[in-house]
Write a structure and sequence with these properties.
The chain is an alpha/beta fold. 57% of the residues lie in helices and 9% in strands. Strand 6, helix 13 and strand 7 form a beta-alpha-beta unit. The protein starts with 9 loop residues before the first helix and ends in a 10-residue tail after the last helix.
Length: 292
């Protein structure tokens, strides 16, 4: 609807985009979000480009941006969309130069244009892996890794606010004792939350006794234990088996092998935690059901 012939008046347009006319007029007035045409009778007519801008605005607001930030992102996306690969390159460059505003700008634009799942799977997690590898190879400093991890973890936890509310199935998420890397687990929880699940996040370095007590008290539909180090889980097989008898248990991360999961009576989540979260959501498990 790039011409007046296919454009809509405010009432019909509002119904189409799911936003009240009063709010649309406010966005038009404050942020110039809408750029209506004029009919021969002087009525404002809203086009497909306006509708796409409104949808980008709504996605950005859903991702936790303020109205002003969301409008900026919606306008920025009027230019040709950058591919995912470019977003990853820009994010890496911001990390390399310790550019905090630049990092947030890339995340703002990417979340609004691509959506949470794509940004997690194809931008944030691969970039963090790339930063970790660059540190191991000596091309980046440990400061870069800490800078990137701390900022992106804070950003994801902001999106996770109130993810324990609702009436959906409950997932308890924790990292193994001694495991400090929890960003992948947060990403898993955010995707699971998008399917209506509730998340109880215990985070890094969680004693198995604490996770077991929490599972006994809350009876989750799923308990997830993550580790990057195989040794952190291999030494705790008996406690894992006890935990798996209380709640369906899943092991994730490079430290979780298929064999270890089998011995513990658990399922193993695939390395792509975004895909794994979608699979869990498609195959919900009762708290008293055996783990598949």
């Amino acid at each position: 609807m790039s011409t007046a012939q296919g454009a809509l008046r405010i009432g019909e347009f509002a119904r189409r985009v799911g936003v009240k006319p009063e709010l649309l007029r406010a966005w038009e007035r404050r942020y110039e979000l809408l750029q209506p045409l004029r009919s021969e009778g002087g009525f404002r007519l809203y086009t497909e480009a306006d509708a796409e801008r409104v949808m980008r605005m709504r996605r950005a607001l859903d991702e936790g941006l303020s109205a002003a930030e969301a409008a900026r992102v919606a306008h920025a996306s009027d230019s040709p969309e950058r591919p995912v690969e470019d977003a990853g390159e820009r994010l890496y460059a911001a990390i390399e130069s310790y550019d905090e505003p630049g990092l947030h700008a890339v995340l703002d634009e990417s979340l609004a244009a691509l959506g949470l799942e794509v940004v997690l799977r194809d931008v944030i997690l691969p970039t963090l892996r790339r930063v970790g590898l660059a540190w191991e190879q000596g091309t980046l400093e440990i400061g870069h890794e800490h800078f990137a991890s701390n900022l992106m973890r804070a950003r994801l936890m902001a999106l996770a606010r109130l993810w324990g509310r609702g009436g959906g199935p409950l997932a308890v998420l924790a990292c193994a004792p001694g495991e400090a890397h929890d960003i992948s687990l947060i990403a898993f929880g955010l995707v699971l939350r998008s399917h209506g699940w509730r998340i109880l996040f215990l985070g890094a370095d969680t004693p198995l006794a604490t996770l077991t007590q929490t599972a006994e008290r809350t009876r989750p539909a799923l308990a997830v234990l993550a580790s990057f180090d195989p040794g952190l889980l291999e030494a705790d097989q008996a406690p894992l088996r006890r935990l798996a008898k209380i709640a369906p248990l899943a092991l994730s991360g490079p430290g979780a092998s298929d064999e270890l999961a089998r011995r513990a009576g658990a399922r193993r989540l695939d390395g792509d935690l975004v895909a794994a979260a979608n699979e869990v959501a498609r195959r919900p498990v009762r708290p008293d059901a055996p783990v598949p």
